Amino acid sequence: MRLGFYYHIPAILKSGEICVPGYLGRFLDELANNIEHLTLFLHQPNPGENVYFDHVLQASNIDLVRLPQRKSAPYRLLHAKKYTMLIKQHSKNIDALMLRGPSPLLPSLANADKSLPIILMIVGDYLAGIDSLPQPGWRKTLIRLMDTVNYHEQLKVARRSLVFVNSKILYEQYDGSARKLIETRTSTLTKDDFFVRENTCENRPIHLLYTGRMDPSKGLLDMVNALSLLVQQGDDVVLDFVGWPEANSDILDQINSTARQAGVEDRVFYHGYKSVGPELFAYYKNADIYLLASQASEGFPRTIWEAMAHCLPVVATRVGSIPDFIQGAAELVEPRDPTALAQSVKKLLDDFELRKTYIARAFEIAKENTLETQVGNMSRDILQWVEENK
Question: Is 154 strand, coil or helix?
């Protein structure tokens, strides 16, 4: 099977090798291992983006069709023919087209060559996060309008497509619209990434860890305020942030300001962006508790699988599919509640047996969600779909 793949994350070429962000690269390499050939339709990067292209694709059966730069969503929609033209030019070299979304160009690219079987991989919902955007009200209204139109156009595409979703909430949204619908798990883990230990929190200071996008909707300021409450109670804890801020974001300044006001500026550390793999995983190995305080709906954050695979007990908010996937294997609290976050961390600090129970349960769940397992299942479903729709 020769599969085409599009997502709005760019790629670059270094000495003839294709480089993408690590979380995407690991998926693409494993996908290529399960099919005959993979053709990537990926944008050229904008200035300043090159720092995140840290994964060199290893599979030899991958080639890259370079799309124009990923400009604003309105620009891409108004100039969709610039992108669909390249799909048409290469459609004879692929047996099906896989589109990861949500993405502004997804509907247009799905209709570029209607003879191609379409596979959608939906990993989020633009509409769910609009209220938390740091934008004025009028701009949020325009974004909501554009995203609503995009969502309904995606549903139209789904009616003739094989659709993978990575959460129960997304499954419910697409159930009844997709021609064929499958719930999957998105992961960055390989079977060689697991780190075994029975316990954490044995040394001081205790390291609380967050990894991922440095986005206000992830509850980063709630984490800082929870840290302050723990310190006030006499707990020797620090908070480590690892990830990348969005372009033009002032979130790092907000974190520093909140930490100063709370009197914990010497206990909050930002370590920057780290490549998925040994560089990032070293932070999990050295941490004691993983925090995720998302305020908006999540598909399912891959970082939770990463934490669980490194035997880190997890405190997360009860949003999206997080409760569906890890209920009983982590501490779950309501969003926007630093006090509840602090209480759950304190509970884990004080209860040795509870920590060990969560670590053991979570580790077993994570073992079921490796790339080898999930992408292998996905590839078999795609192959069957293509055979049925030739």
Answer: helix
Burial zone of 299 (CB within 10 Å; 0-12 exposed, 13-18 middle, 19+ buried): buried
What confidence score (pLDDT) does residue 342 get? 98
Give the DSSP H or E segment for 121. strand 118-122
At 92 the pLDDT is 95
Burial of 172 (0-12, 13-18, 19+ CB in 10 A): exposed
CATH number of the domain located at residue range(s) 2-187+371-388 in this protein: 3.40.50.2000
Residue 152: exposure state from Cβ atoms within 10 A (0-12, 13-18, ≥19):
exposed
CA–CA dist 140, 131 (Å, integer): 7
Provide the pairing of β-strand 17-20 with 55-56.
antiparallel
Q: Which two tokens stand for residue 41?
A: 């339709």
Q: What is the DSSP string of 308-331?
A: HHTT--EEEES-TTHHHHHTTSSE
> Are the C-beta atoms of 311 and 200 separated by less than 8 Å?
yes
The whole-number pLDDT of residue 134 equals 66
Flag residues of the chain having pLDDT under 70. 50, 129-134, 298
Residues of the chain with CATH 3.40.50.2000: 2-187+371-388, 206-367
Main-chain phi, psi angles of 38, to 5 degrees: -125, 120
Q: Calculate the CA dihedral of residues 211, 272, 100, 192 and round it to 10 degrees.
A: -60
pTM: 0.93
Sequence-ordered list of residues with C-beta below 8 angstroms from that of 352, at least 6 positions apart, any chain: 199
**Domain 206-367 in CATH: superfamily?**
Glycogen Phosphorylase B; (3.40.50.2000)
